[in-house]
Write a structure and sequence with these properties.
- With 268 residues, this protein is mostly helical.
- Helices cover 81% and strands 0% of the residues.
- Helix 3 packs across helix 6.
Amino acid sequence: MRFLKKLVPNIYLALLLIFIYLPIAILIVYSFNKLPKSFIWGGFTLDNYKRLFKGSDGSGILESLLETLKVGAIASVVSTAFGVISSLGLAYLNKKLQSFAMTMTYVPNVMPDLVTGISFMLLFSFLGVQKSEFTLIMSHIALCVPFAILSISPKIRQLDKSLTEAAMDLGATRFQTLRLVIIPEIMPGILSSLLLTFTLSLDDYLISTFNADSSIQTLPMMIYSMAKLGVNPKINALTTLMFCAVLVLMVLSNLSSFKKAKPAHKEK
């Protein structure tokens, strides 16, 4: 019985990991397939990667990628800044108001992207604002701000108030206290917010579709339009490179956390 109790969770975990990572593995393998737009293996080649970065053949995809990265970077930085300011403001409210404000913050997180996209499209139409890169960025910021608050608020609540009081007692201004005491203490939450909001913006399709001009095309929009005509090997190559980039960042992040935890463990 003990053997079965250990075996069943391990089998479940193995099946879960296979279910999650098998599609990614297939994607990576077929990014090297010699036969374009085919699920039949035709031999190993790097031509799909060469076409991706080659002149006009890959420029549309690269332009969409750069546009997506630009919008994602702006949305993540601005929403994280709003998240820090909002979380600090929430920390000074009484418990009832804080609970109400946090509840209102949760609502956009569970709202379907379809509703959010149409709502902002109607808002911009009502205000007479033409669809452009500006409307796209603003809608992405609105999407990301609630998630930024949820990432940063726990770190604000964990902050020792005596640190800020001690800094101000020693002559630090409010801005110096924020810059030298509060920001370093909540930096893990800020980094988490930047990564989360950037990923949300990078992945968004519906909100971008409703709020972007026809001349602007993000990567998810391009991939969706290309998927109607069949699997494009250049997309396989691009998503493989993106997966590898994320994997490297995660490994570096874990190594950094491990190095920081090691001295602390030695001190104990």
